[in-house]
Amino acid sequence: MSDETPHRGEAAVLIEYLDHFRGVLERKCEGLDAEQLAQRSVPPSSMSLLGLVRHLAAVEYSWWRRVMERNLDLPKMWGKDEHRDADFDGAVADDAVVAEAWEAWRTEVAHAREFQASHPMDHLGQHDDGDLEMREVVVHLIEEYARHCGHADLLRECIDGRTGD
Fold first, then answer.
1. CA separation (Å) from 21 to 60, 70, 108?
2. 141 touches 63 (CB < 8 A)
């Protein structure tokens, strides 16, 4: 590394990677209507692009509002307590469902960004298995988004042949 290269630090690098994958998810869904977004992958899977948006909204909500803010008593999003695949099963071809999913996702991402900006990477959240640092949550979310962006790439290719990002 040259002396001219700025040292951005751990937090900046991790948040940049997480935001990159958040952007990939948005781009994978660009220009699709409710029917296309709700199109399922290979049976018996219930995975769809819309289901991924709903799932990742719930993931952001759970990690930031429940775990990092230490509010484990908050209800889970999309009725997930009652039904494990509610994120995906509720992803139906309806403009209102699409709008609700994007609103939830954007709200939770904005909330996460505010939280990240106001807390250090060693901030402790409370998980069912004990305390964990914010850096662990960010790394987990990078992994979660990266994996699901791979799914999104395959789903988008099945819809209209578009690949890459």
1. 13, 25, 15
2. yes
Sign for the CA dihedral angle at 68, 74, 79, 83 comes to positive
Radius of gyration of the chain (CA): 17
Token pair for residue 68?
A: 């990092």
Beta strands in 62-150 (DSSP E): 124-127, 130-133
The beta strands (E) that lie in the chain are given as 124-127, 130-133
For the stretch 27-78, pLDDT in tens is 999 999 999 999 998 778 889 999 999 999 999 999 999 999 999 899 888 7
> What is the CATH T-level fold of the domain 26-160, as seen in this structure?
Four Helix Bundle (Hemerythrin (Met), subunit A) (1.20.120)
Please give the structure tokens belonging to residue 91: 């992803």
Chain centroid to Cα 26, Å, comes to 10
Can you read off the two tokens belonging to residue 77?
Answer: 């999003």
Global model pTM greater than 0.85: yes
